[in-house]
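=== RUN LOG ===
request id: a7f3
mode: sequence -> structure
chains: 1
length: 450
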Amino acid sequence: MIKPYKKVNPDSAKGSVHVMAEVAEVVRRVVDHGESLDRLLVQPNLPDRRNEPAFREMAYGTCRYFPHIDWYLGMLLERPLRQKDRILHFLLAVGIYQIEHMRTPDYAVLNEAVGATSSLDRNWARKLVNGVLRNYLRERSHYDVSEMPEHQAHAFSEFLFDRIKSDWPKRYLEIVEASNTRPPLTLRVNLAKTSRDKAIQTLQENSMACVATRDSPVGFTLSSPVPVNQIPGFSQGEVSVQDESAQLAALELECDGNLNVLDACAAPGGKTTHLIEMFRENCTITAVDLDSRCTLIHQNLARLGLQANVVAGDVRKPGTWWNGNPYDRILLDVPCSGSGVIRRHPDIKYRRKPGDLDKFHMLQTSMLAAVWELLHPGGLVLYVTCSIFHRENDDVIASFISQGDDREVQAIGKIPGIATRFGMQRLPGFGDGDGFYYCKIRKPLRTTGE
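=== RESULT ===
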């Protein structure tokens, strides 16, 4: 369980000054310690909840652009700050993010940043913070950015940037650019309750502009994101939040006929509920995930008024949860680096290390091998990741199919993207969706005499 982040001194904090100090502490925990940004923002320590939108914008934005901002701070600071005062480094980063990417007037950013030193018990640093930010405002257009390392110029860690460039030498610039954009809020309509056209009309009648997704027949994207509890039909189960690329998985699974279907690694339940919405009349659907994650699946099922067989268990150990009935279709959305969803989770830039891809590769290969034993002859496994790295995608499939002659890779037919050796890759921003990989593998029917 993650510990709550260190609280700043609220006695000397007023409004946005307190917010800026809190953001600096969150960014420090993400960048220096690799903690989850989403978890740190679950219960922000804010005296006024009206400041939460600005708080989240500064936290996500500073994490998104920190490698780039950090280069400027290296130019602005005569020497690195002492480790015990490193929080000031992040306070300055938050200030530069506001100057460059928010509508806050420059003078207000300086006043808030200087005031935030009191909230951080660093009153002695008022002149330092004021001086550094003033120098930035004066000199920012004069720095020779050609000297900036390429990975920092594109606001990425060196490891991730080099890996993207190596895997996608002709497309790496469009990938990192898309990964630094704000993600859209995409919804999936529940066709059992309404139609996409009707859902779009309802939102437009409530002054929420939206447009149908290009590739998913059940999706639409809001022009301006809003809290989900403000979306008409969300609480009634008429729509769900789900990225367009994630919506496409259920369409490729070929669930025609009376089939036994498994959604492995199912939490939080977006794909499970989509499968039920599409195929509940003729399919039996089971969702399995670790016990600690099953609550999320139940919550999504309850909101949508749906039912599924939810099983707590480790996909790699089916003997502890499988009832022995083979599955005709298995959707395996494995844990991965998340390199295709960095625009939604900028903390991935700091949480992923060079050895992680090999660890994920081993985990993914073991999961694929485990669910293969549960598949009925003639059945299909759809292997899915939200990664853009070959090590987690085609390399996993190559390793798996080399271990037996009872596995046939089939062409992806309903998902647009970039064809790879074995599957289909959607890069971040393709069709406004996240980066996803899909590979479909069929187990041949047994021949007579076996």
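=== NOTES ===
Confidence is low (pLDDT under 50) at residues 1-15.
The first strand starts at residue 185 and ends at 189.
=== END ===
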